């Protein structure tokens, strides 16, 4: 998942199989159809639009980094852990 600002850099990465350009609710609908097992949210801050996004994807397991007090994530990874 990326925005327009980093699309050009990420599309050249040989380790990325599928790249989604975020364009709001349409992206959420398309991703939800795939029925993902795992969603990894790789930012320590969560904004309302991100909360909505993670919640609407309906992955079986949601993983976050250093995000406390939000029951949206099943697994929370601490940045001081390996």
Please tell me about this protein's structure.
- This protein is α/β, with parallel strands linked by helices.
- It has three helices and three strands, in the order H-H-E-H-E-E.
- The chain has helices at residues 7-10, 25-33, 48-57; strands at residues 38-41, 61-65, 75-77.
- Strands 1-2-3 form a three-stranded parallel sheet, with no helix packed on it.
- Strand 1, helix 3 and strand 2 form a beta-alpha-beta unit.
- It is globular.
What attributes does this structure have?
82 residues, alpha/beta, 28% helix, globular
**Span between N and C termini?**
25 Å
Morphology call? globular
For the sheet with most strands, the description reads: 3 strands, parallel
Mean of the pLDDT scores? 85
Lay out the secondary structure:
Blueprint: H1 7-10, H2 25-33, E1 38-41, H3 48-57, E2 61-65, E3 75-77
Parallel strand pairs: 1-2, 2-3
Summarize the structure.
This protein has 82 residues and is of the alpha/beta class. It is 28% helix and 15% strand. It has a three-stranded parallel β-sheet, with no helix packed on it.
């Amino acid at each position: 998942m990326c925005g327009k600002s980093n699309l050009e850099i990420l599309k050249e990465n040989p380790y990325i199989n599928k790249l989604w350009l975020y364009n709001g609710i349409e992206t959420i609908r398309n991703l939800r159809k795939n029925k993902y097992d795992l969603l990894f949210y790789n930012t320590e801050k969560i904004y309302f639009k991100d909360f909505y996004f993670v919640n609407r994807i309906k992955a079986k397991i949601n993983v976050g980094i250093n995000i406390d007090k939000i029951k949206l994530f099943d697994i929370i990874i601490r940045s001081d852990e390996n």
